[in-house]
Fold:
Amino acid sequence: MGTQHQRTEEFTELRPLLFSLAYRILGSAAEAEDVLQDAWLRYARTDAVVETPRAFLTTVVTRLAVDVLRSSRIQREHYVGHWLPEPVLTDHDADPAAAAERDESISMASLLLLERLSPLERAVYVLREVFSLDYADIAETVERSEAACRQLAARARKHMALPRPRYAADPRTRQELTRRFIAAFQHGDLDELRELLTAEVIMVGDGGGKAPSVPHPVSGRDKVARLLASVGAPMTAIGVHLEPREINGSAGLLTRTEHGEIVNAVILEISEDGVEMIRAVSNPDKLRHLGPISDIWRLKEEFQQARASQREASMPQRGAPMSQRPRPDRPEG
Structure:
């Protein structure tokens, strides 16, 4: 049995790996952190000789995550509105997911596909396809036979083998499109937004009933562009800005107030043709691990006031002479 100091060092070294495992199984950063805390307590208190800390902790984290997922599935069935995984930052400033592998398995699209799997299928798929464990180790971890694990993996692969978005191959292209998207949104530039979106673009929001959000998916270039243009300028007027970040391995934005508080996290799926999918997570419970959260209802009041002021300013004043009122252009002659 190692000393407590040795176990602390071992757990600290393995923590990024264990977080990435728990997060992929759960789709929740907060739940993954709870699992790691529980795993650490079990590791610190065990009297057994642990010859391979990685194997021991991988087993503990997997079993705990499966148990948590089984219970959280019931809550997700009664979730208010559209459910999305909790976003994690995957750029160089990320914590705790900085060391998580930047493969497609951490993308929002893949995490949503994983939601179709049973908890056990999900664990087996992640252990096999992401962490490349052999079936003997997987069988021991999930307490099933090797044959059963092979069947679970095969079923999971069928669910995961659906068509996926074609992401831009050139990161510079993605960065440039994100920069243009930010500028167009903040200025409410409808034409530019239309140019940046694909014809079949879809926008979904997750407020969980705890924050204003898009109540239903919005699809189509015109509808999505109009929605974005209608909220961008008022948000800018009250000091809200967009901070480009890599989120779940994709182009992303953290919406912040003028004081730096987080309003929501936006994930953009970008293909060679433009923005194909926009996912906005506004549920404050899913954002707390990213930093201080804004008072979303106060912000909503400020937004509505700014929007009303902009509309009023764009309308002709009552009682003004006709010559001073804006009038539509007409052909000369």
